[in-house]
Amino acid sequence: ALAVVLVGNDPASQVYVRNKIKKTEAAGMRSVAYDLSETTTQEGLMHLIQQLNQDKAIHAILVQLPLPLHINSHEVICAIAPEKDVDGFHPVNVGLLSTGKSGVVPCTPLGIIKLLAGVCPDLTGMHAVVLGRSNIVGKPLVHLLSQANCTVSLLHSRTRDISSYVQQADILIVAVGKPAMVQADWIKPGAIIIDVGINRIILTDGTQKLVGDVDFAQVKNKAGAITPVPGGVGPMTIACLLENTLNLARKHCVTK
Length: 256
Ligand code: GUN
Known about the structure:
The chain is globular. The chain is α/β, with parallel strands linked by helices. The chain has nine helices and ten strands. α6 (about 140-145) links the parallel β4 (about 125-130) and β5 (about 150-155). It is about 40% helix and about 15% strand. Strands 5-4-6-7-10 form a five-stranded parallel β-sheet. Strands 2-1-3 form a three-stranded parallel β-sheet, sandwiched between helices. The chain has a two-stranded antiparallel sheet with strand order 8-9.
């Protein structure tokens, strides 16, 4: 079973968690939801994780991020048993990924690599530009893309002259959280564009809409391939969560 831990009332996190639970059960696996209040203490959360680590019926543990500010996320992630760390966020799994050994790979980066393999089976020699240096997306992608023989540039909020790098990208992955940040004049014709952004914007008529970090309507005319928001990376993240959950459950069967 997959344990899904949500702390607090962030509406976006509530939607993501509900979807993860729904899809896990639709795939025929069990999930156990832990909905904790915003005022949950560090000790309370650590205690739950230790219980889940010891529970033989739990094969995979997911703690939805971001956690409330009074919680030390690093300490929480470190408390998850690495062999139950379905997100691959534990330093043991981060270290395995960075040294090219097999561990648990974070769901969104893994989904992105599978999307890329679908349009281009051999990425050797391509210049992959990653915009955004988060632990969840940007940093793990650097390792996965370099293992796939790409030349990788990791750009972030302090990078000077971002557009000059983006213009050289054969593959562009954007995980920043800024609507329409990437414009068509930055794009090398034929480039593969992966948009990881999920931004809720309010239109002039007052209605809401989900958009990515890329100006899709303009960029799609220049790109060789491009993922939409919603519907591109999101479903792949969920698919990889299910795959990671299944793999962890199978390992528990073999060894225990
Ligand atoms: N917050 C945003 N993406 C993720 C994810 O992949 N896993 C978890 N646990 N939290 C997230």
